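Technical appendix A lists one of the benchmark inputs used to test multi-chain prediction within the project. The record comprises four sequence entries:
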Amino acid sequence: MTDINEPLTQPADRRVETPAARKASPAREASLLALAELLFFAYRDFTRDPDTILKDFGFGRAHHRVLHFVNCHSGLRVADLLDALNITKQSLGRVLKQLIDQGYIVQEAGSVDRRERLLYPTAAGRALVKRLAAPQLIRLADALKAAGPGAEAALRRFLEAMINAEERPKVSSIMASTPVALEDDGKGEAS
Amino acid sequence: MTDINEPLTQPADRRVETPAARKASPAREASLLALAELLFFAYRDFTRDPDTILKDFGFGRAHHRVLHFVNCHSGLRVADLLDALNITKQSLGRVLKQLIDQGYIVQEAGSVDRRERLLYPTAAGRALVKRLAAPQLIRLADALKAAGPGAEAALRRFLEAMINAEERPKVSSIMASTPVALEDDGKGEAS
DNA sequence: GAAATTAAGTCAACATGACTGACATAAACG
DNA sequence: CGTTTATGTCAGTCATGTTGACTTAATTTC
């Protein structure tokens, strides 16, 4: 209790602070803080619809993320997934195992390097992804429309710049791979 | 703009396929999915810096959210906070208690309704918020700059539209209250 | 071909922050 | 006065994140 008035000289380490001290005006700071708040609210609601659907399957948001990446970049390796999600093998293992056991994802040994397990969505997996994505796509499309012309391009530039510079190559490489649309190509072996 | 979307009658319950209308082209869907992915990456990195700092204090992201709202909208009631965060009393209670016990937040009975506990940041709380916000403000400012002129206004319109329509009044009302800048000036405990 | 490295899977143990539902208190309202 | 409201709290559960150590299989390196 009590180092209330302590000046917070944290042990943390010299993180951030960026080069030449950037000092925004208080008004500018308040404006950016409000933007951060908006981002929080937007993201909160963006994830809400799929979260609700997932509950019916006994899944959580972690499953959604895995399903999304496996569907949109099908054939990626477990290591790629770990990289994209930035979680531990253990964490991923739990949800991935469930998704595999329940038939939403299959794995296949890599043809060049057979240690690698390449991940693919099953038809059921594609159908579930499609269903989870549906409300999000509508929300995104509506919001882009509301934001007006040009907003989409600006938004993409903004979001890309928000990503850690060191991570950008990794992200680009993942995003460049099999940018596949939501196809449930007929056969719905489950849902 | 295509009329990919229309009514947005999608309360998260009406799952599966939107009516008959609203079918985006596969290419458009892929493009929006990529946008969703970017949003995930951006948000992931946006929260990373403060998360790292918080660990040094034994706090988590939940503490950050509470601190942020109490600082930016100081004097809000516990009920307002529950509304903003969309979590349960129990969940909030835990982190709020820690923040109060450790001297980052103080509460004061409302003057009109003494049942209400109005929340205020202490000097230590303001200092911590400032420190947590610093990397985020820099990131936001940089990203806005990278996105080019006009991006900020478009982004705000986009984010606002991403929020559930029913939630917007609540959000507006919270955001309208005491949009305070990051000042860790004099002033100590709650007024 | 043996050794080292790498990709993946797994174990145990643990922390955080969500949840539910029930209940206690104090203040305000009618 | 009794009811409702705002808050706080108890007990228990669940999802998802963490670390560190270890196994297995395949590839690479010497």
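Residues 123-147 of chain A form the longest helix (25 residues). Chain A touches chain B through 85 residues (CB under 8 Å). Comparable benchmark entries are summarised in Table A2.
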